[in-house]
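During the first year of the project, the team set up a workflow for recording each protein of interest as an amino acid sequence followed immediately by a discrete structure-token representation. This format lets reviewers and collaborators read both layers of information side by side without switching files. As required by the reporting guidelines, we include two representative entries from the current panel. The first entry is reproduced here exactly as it appears in our internal archive.
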Amino acid sequence: MKISFYAFVLLFFISCKDQDQKSSEKAPENRNIAPVLSVPENIEEAHNKVAFMEQEAIAFDIDLSFNGNSRLNATISMLTNSSRIKLEKKDDTVLIFDGEKVFQQSGDRIDTGARFDIFTWPYFFALPFKLTDPGTMWEEKPDRDMEGQNYHTARLTFQSQTGDSPDDWYLIYQDPETLRLKAAAYIVTFNRAAEEAEKSPHMIVYENYKMIKQVPFPQKWHFHNWSAENGLGEKLGEATIRNVHFFMPEKDFFSVSQDAKEVAR
């Protein structure tokens, strides 16, 4: 009886060990499972935000037109955290955002579109790196079709007192293959009521990505009308982005001259 008992105990432990091994094979440890990222997080990762933010500043030339008419021809320089911006127009008008206020450093009269220009175009350029900034709020939306291609979408809104136009919103389109930013529908509430802006939403479409120090940047922007019902509409304008480069600004690069005029809200 002793031999039979010991044999039974031995068989029992062998069986338990075999079951534990099978269970281990079927259920891998959770720590090896990658976290699921949201649309904005995926876009920032696809655009290599870490590499972008490791650089001090970035500059680019922009040639922007609407309805066949030139709207802006300038060089824009900015810190990668957007806390300082310089916009140098080809007509020698220079605009500077010093982190708190906007100034115009040349010209007898304040450019009526100065404040809009110095915030809007740099924001469109840096949008893939600003999706999880403080004050951003997100809502996942259903996939949408654009020109026969399906895109992931999510809606971006802002907490009150975020930036110059906290009532703006963006519907972000993410390329399902590259995970990069493809397009953004948006409204502009700068100097007008949100109810009025809601009547004419637009869309910016990003094309022709080029790698600059392992960070992808689009070389073409296309602007269109847009509606929730029909999506992409009539083309309104376009921008060509050239000479994108990171740089280390001199100490006084974003400094404001003594004769500069403040641009009010």
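The second entry, processed by the same pipeline in the following quarter, appears below.
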Amino acid sequence: MTAEPAHLAAVRESYDTVAADYLRLVVPPERMDPVSRAMLAAFAELVRESGGGEVADLGCGPGRVTAYLDGLGLSAFGVDVSGEMIALARRAYPRLRFTVGSMAALDVADASLGGILAWYSIHHTPPEQLPQLFAEFARVLAPDGHLLLGGHVGDAQLRPATGYGHPVSYASHLVPADRLVALLEQAGFTVTTRLEQPHPQKVDRSYVCLLARLGTVGHRPAD
């Protein structure tokens, strides 16, 4: 049996500890900034226009964004490494499917998903493991399937002592946006939209949303 990566155990233990306060402190999708909500809506429309199919919300936490995608007309389910987060999600949204698991080793058939959302959830993955993570995303997406990746970008490794009012043991890895784009392209994705917003307090980091499609995207027709 393969040993669990140390970073994954730290993420599980930390988010099991903070789950209830995370739910209390993190704004729900309805209160996100307009740009983030617009990117989620664009992702949902792209998936629907491409024929739909199931959408995996990877690192779904307490399930609020999964439910938001459901409200946008997607057949969405959630995956998270934290059992406590999944328990919160199942209680709040019993109609939806939530599974405890790692986004790097999904219990999902090849080429079976219409979309993947990784919303502020890949930053705990060590940078050297991102190629394998994005290869897993590519494995489970159907041809021309869509990915929306949102998160913090920069060039730093953060090891906070506390998070959401509790001791935590995870690390957060801030990777430059250009590096994320390059790694996605190496995994077979074409990044179709890149939107970056400055952090309101910290000049060394920003927020990015990357919309990508598996495979080569043709040119728009001429006007």
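For the second entry, the following points were noted during internal review. The mean pLDDT is 93. DSSP finds six helices and eleven strands in the chain. Both points are flagged for discussion at the upcoming steering committee meeting.
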